[in-house]
Design goal:
Pfam families: Hexapep, LpxD. This protein has four helices and 38 strands. By secondary structure, it is of the alpha/beta class. The protein has two domains: 86 residues, MurE/MurF, N-terminal domain (Udp-n-acetylmuramoylalanyl-d-glutamate--2,6- Diaminopimelate Ligase, Chain: A, domain 1); 206 residues, Hexapeptide repeat proteins (UDP N-Acetylglucosamine Acyltransferase, domain 1), CATH 2.160.10. It has an eleven-stranded mixed beta sheet with strand order 9-12-15-18-23-26-29-32-35-37-38, with helices on one face. The chain is flat, with a radius of gyration of 28 Å.
C-alpha cells in the first residue's frame, strides 16, 4: 500500500483538502476501525455528529460538512471517492507476464502480448487471447474461444467452445461459461435432449462472480451486455439477453430467454420465469419472482412480483388477515344476536 499526502489524494479526485494537505495517509479502514495514519469515509451525513469520535487522520465526507480540527475531503459521493482512493493506494497486482511451462496451449491458439498463463491452464484449438490478459491455474478454454485484452480469468474457470469475451472482463473462480443449456422435449414418458448449438457472448467491462453458471444458447447466443456485474452463485439460462449495466446479486436465477433492459437490478434470491421481458431501470426486490413482463421502470416485490406500493398494501392485508378473521367472526355473532332479537320466533 502506498503512502500519500492528502493533497495528492485531492489532486487525484479533483477536489480540495479541508485541513492539513501535507498529512500523510498510509492506511485504509472503516470509520469504526480507523486510527492515526488511516483515511476513511462517512457515507450517511446524518451521522456527522459522530465524526469527532473518529480516530482517522482524514475522512471523506459529503460536501458541506465541516468539523473543526479534522482533516476532511469533501465529495459529492463519499463512497465512490473512497473507492477511488483505495485504487490509488492499493495498485493492482503486477502479473509475471509469463506462460507456465506446463500450461497446455494448442498450436493453433493465438496468444497476445504480455499474457500470463499460470500452471495447469488448458488452451484449446483456435483460441484467441488478447494482450495483458491473465488466466490462473486450472482454467479451461475450449476450442474457438475468444478473450479480449486486460481480462482476469481466475482459478478453475471453465469457458466452453465458441464463447466470445470482450475487453476488461473479470471471471472469478469456479464459474462456468458456455455450459450446455437445459433443453428437453417430452417424448412420451421420456425426455428428448435438444442440442444446444448456440454460444455465449460477454461484452466489455463485465464482471462475473465465483460459482456462476451461464448456459450457451440453444441456437442463438446468450448475451451479457457491457458493464453488467454478476455477484456469486448466479444462474443465467440459455438464450437470455441481459442489457447494459445490469446489477445481479447472489443466488439469482433467470430461466431461459429472459430479456432485460439497461440498468436492471436483481436483489438476492430473486428470479425470473422463462420468456420474460424486463424494462430499463426495473428493480427486482429480494426473493421476488417475475412471472410476467415488466413494462416500465420501478421497484417490484413479492411472488408474483408486483409494483412496490401494490405489494406493500397486499402484504399489510396478509399480515392483518388473522386479526380481520377474528373481527369478522365477532361481527357474525353480533349480527346473529340482533337477528334473534328482531325476530324471536325464528329458531334453528
Amino acid at each position: 500500500m502506498k503512502t500519500v499526502t492528502l493533497q495528492e489524494i485531492a489532486d487525484y479526485l479533483g477536489t480540495e483538502v479541508l485541513g492539513n494537505p501535507e498529512e500523510k495517509i498510509s492506511g485504509i479502514q472503516g470509520i469504526l476501525e480507523a486510527k492515526a495514519g488511516d483515511i476513511t469515509f462517512l457515507a450517511n451525513p446524518k451521522y456527522k455528529d459522530k465524526l469527532p469520535l473518529c480516530q482517522a487522520s482524514a475522512v471523506v465526507v459529503s460536501q458541506g460538512i465541516e468539523v473543526e480540527g479534522m482533516n476532511l475531503i469533501p465529495a459529492e459521493n463519499p463512497r465512490m471517492d473512497f473507492a477511488k482512493i483505495v485504487r490509488l493506494m492499493v495498485p493492482s497486482k503486477q502479473e509475471n507476464q509469463e506462460i507456465a511451462k506446463n500450461a497446455f496451449i494448442a498450436k493453433s491458439a493465438s496468444i497476445g502480448v504480455g499474457v500470463t498463463l499460470y500452471p495447469g491452464v488448458y488452451i484449446g484449438e483456435n483460441v484467441t487471447i488478447g494482450d495483458n490478459t491473465v488466466v490462473y491455474s486450472g482454467s479451461f478454454l475450449g476450442d474457438d474461444v475468444t478473450i479480449g485484452k486486460d481480462c482476469m480469468i481466475y482459478a478453475n474457470v471453465s469457458i466452453h467452445h465458441e464463447t466470445k469475451i470482450g475487453d476488461r472482463v473479470i471471471v472469478n473462480s469456479n464459474s462456468v461459461i458456455g455450459s450446455e443449456g437445459f433443453g428437453f422435449e417430452r417424448d412420451g414418458d421420456r425426455h428428448f435432449k435438444i442440442p444446444q448449438v448456440g454460444n455465449v457472448i460477454i461484452e466489455d467491462d463485465v464482471e462475473i462472480g465465483a460459482l456462476c453458471a451461464i448456459d450457451r444458447g440453444s441456437i442463438k447466443a446468450t448475451l451479457i451486455s457491457k458493464g453488467t456485474k454478476l455477484d456469486n452463485l448466479i444462474h443465467i439460462a440459455h438464450n437470455c439477453q441481459l442489457g447494459e449495466n445490469n446489477l445481479i446479486l447472489s443466488q439469482v436465477g433467470l430461466a431461459g430467454t429472459v430479456t432485460t433492459g439497461k440498468n436492471v437490478y436483481f436483489a438476492g434470491k430473486s428470479g425470473c420465469m422463462d420468456h420474460i421481458q424486463i424494462a430499463d431501470r426495473a428493480q427486482i426486490g429480494g426473493a421476488a419472482v417475475v412471472t410476467g413482463n415488466i413494462e416500465k421502470a420501478g421497484m417490484y416485490f413479492g411472488y408474483p412480483a408486483r409494483p412496490y406500493q401494490e405489494w406493500k398494501k397486499a402484504s399489510a392485508l396478509f399480515y392483518k388477515s388473522d386479526e380481520l378473521r377474528k373481527k369478522n367472526q365477532e361481527l357474525e355473532k353480533r349480527i346473529q344476536k340482533l337477528e334473534e332479537l328482531l325476530d324471536p320466533t325464528e329458531k334453528d
